[in-house]
Design a protein that fits this description.
The complex is a heterodimer of chains A (about 375) and B (about 100).
Chain A (H helix, E strand, L loop, with lengths): L2 E8 L9 H16 L8 E4 L6 H9 L5 E3 L7 H15 L5 E7 L1 H4 L13 H5 L9 H15 L3 H15 L15 H6 L2 E3 L2 E2 L9 E9 H4 L7 E10 L15 H12 L8 E4 L6 H8 L20 H4 L7 H13 L12 E8 L4 E9 L2
Parallel strand pairs in A: 2-3, 2-4, 9-10
Antiparallel strand pairs in A: 1-7, 1-8, 4-7, 5-6, 8-11, 10-11
Chain B lengths: L1 E5 L5 E2 L14 E5 L3 E10 L6 E8 L4 E6 L10 E7 L2 E6 L4
Antiparallel strand pairs in B: 1-2, 1-3, 4-5, 4-7, 5-6, 7-8
The structure holds zinc ion.
The site of zinc ion has 8 residues of chain B, from loops.
Pfam families (chain B): OB_ChsH2_C, zf-ChsH2
Protein name (chain B): DUF35 domain-containing protein
InterPro entries (chain B): ChsH2_C, ChsH2_Znr, NA-bd_OB-fold, Thioester_dehydratase-like
């Protein structure tokens, strides 16, 4: 059975002063309204970041008793994984209408910690934490250092990613940096160094925000108000938790995740019109575009294929986990709803989520209904 | 610095585990590392009174370890380093000249 995304929405973004569950409620009810459905239609929930029992918590808060749920945790990649799980659950008949949602109030609550989380009893707590890397940025910084070294590039080359993200956000009224005007390479280079070669403006934003998407069967989605966006393929890969595990910093799990998604969809990178890629840091963009097959190794900084059209985590919104908002922007591009930033005739979109320190990867390929 | 050597597949691993992640075997023996390697990559962490250099070092035996670089003001990827100890932690400093 083919499955489609029938609704998509953001909750309030930026600095909201709202609780996580208030933002979750906004995301869920707005996505359902977008789909022409109500809470009474929902029998599947996938979410995390609320509590230890995230899906159950959200179900209780919304007065639901779903027949299917998923609260897997894999960092920001998990929302693309939820799409795969939801499509399988709908196809197998375990449920008919799934809401995938996420929200964070991390800016309002000042809950973001740069030192991150080393959990007691893990090998990383014993063998890596004593060296006081910042989690996750020091890992991305080592990837960036290796990338610049390998391809003979400079910090200024990488800074261009932040500059481009800011430019794109000027076309997205919902973006945190909308109306702030362009960023220059010099400004990125002059920002306080955090973990070299990455400075403060090489890092994603810290904002409140979130969103939701609604999945149902394609045949049902065709009877709903908005044009269905079909789930054409998905793939994922888990590679490591430790900073010393990956044999090659420049070969991430996005390679396998992307290949699996393309194989399932029966498509190739050349078929994709627009990419939404998790830009946790500037380095994530060129490396991700290369891994997914949109550029040769070392050439990811010169990709012209439209990507991160809303401004991404660097310039639009970064509520701790960006994954669900990658899906929201992909859906809107495929529906032609993006106004000034619309990619003309976009018919295939790829969303790629990443979690942890390039630890988990998941790719979803979406298309217009033909 | 103690590595594990797998007598079944002849590979080394670090940190210690009950099985060899290369072959799944458990014929693992503790061996002293040669203490030599090269910098795979590094980052200078500036969120401290005194910045410090976190690095991945590729040991000659194969495993990669997270560590600190000491007495290397301007590290570069692929430069050779040797093991030293600071406050009970294995760290790496410049290789001795040949
Ligand atoms: Zn072995």
């Amino acid at each position: 059975m083919s499955v489609a995304i029938a609704g998509a929405a953001e909750c309030d973004l930026g600095k909201t002063g709202k609780s996580i569950l208030e933002l979750q409620t906004q995301a869920v009810t707005r996505a359902l309204a977008d789909a022409g459905l109500t809470l009474a239609d929902v029998d599947g929930i996938a979410t995390n970041g609320i509590s230890r029992f995230s899906a159950t918590q959200l179900a209780d808060y919304l007065g639901l008793q779903p027949s299917w749920s998923d609260s897997s945790f894999a960092g920001g990649a998990v929302f693309e994984m939820y799409v795969a799980r939801a499509a399988q659950a709908i196809s197998s008949g375990q449920c008919s209408t799934v809401v995938i949602s996420y929200a964070s109030n991390q800016r309002s609550a000042r809950s973001r910690k740069l030192t991150g989380v080393y959990e007691e009893g893990t090998p990383e707590a014993a063998f890596e934490e004593p060296y006081r890397p910042l989690y996750p940025i020091s890992y991305y910084a080592m990837v960036a250092q290796r990338y610049l070294h390998t391809y003979g590039l400079s910090r200024a080359d990488l800074a261009g990613v932040a500059v481009a993200a800011r430019d794109r956000a000027q076309l997205n009224p919902a973006a945190w940096t909308y109306g702030k005007g362009p960023l220059t390479v010099d400004e990125v280079l002059a920002a306080p160094m955090i973990s070299s070669p990455l400075g403060a403006l090489d890092c994603c934003l810290v904002t409140d925000g979130g969103g939701a998407v609604v999945l149902t069967s394609l045949s049902r989605a065709r009877d709903l108000p908005k044009p269905p966006v079909t789930v054409m393929g998905y793939g994922e890969a888990l590679t490591h938790t430790g900073m010393a595990t990956a044999p090659d910093l420049l070969r991430t799990g996005a390679i396998e995740s992307g290949q699996r998604a393309f194989a399932r969809a029966g498509l190739a990178p050349a078929d994709v019109d627009v990419v939404q890629l998790y830009d946790s840091f500037t380095i994530s963009v060129p490396l991700g575009l290369e891994a997914l097959g949109f550029a040769a190794p070392g050439e990811g900084l010169s990709v012209t294929l439209p990507h991160n059209t809303g401004g991404g985590g660097l310039a639009y919104c970064h509520p701790g986990q960006l994954g669900v908002l990658l899906l929201v922007e992909a859906v809107r591009q495929l529906r032609g709803e993006c106004g000034a930033r619309q990619v003309p005739d976009a018919s295939v979109a790829l969303a790629h989520g990443t979690g942890g320190i390039f630890s988990s990867h998941a790719t979803v390929i979406l298309g217009v209904d033909r | 610095m103690i590595l594990q050597f797998c007598r079944s597949c002849q590979k080394y691993q670090y940190y210690p585990r009950p099985i060899c992640v290369a072959c799944g075997g458990d014929d693992l023996w503790p061996v002293e590392a040669a203490g030599t390697g090269v910098v795979d990559s590094f980052t200078v962490v500036h969120r401290a009174e005194t910045p410090y250099t976190v690095a991945r070092v590729s040991l000659t035996e194969g495993p990669i370890v997270l560590t600190h670089l000491v007495d290397i003001p301007d590290p570069v990827c692929d430069q050779p380093v040797r093991l030293d100890w600071r406050d009970g932690l294995p760290v790496f400093r410049p290789s001795l000249p040949e």
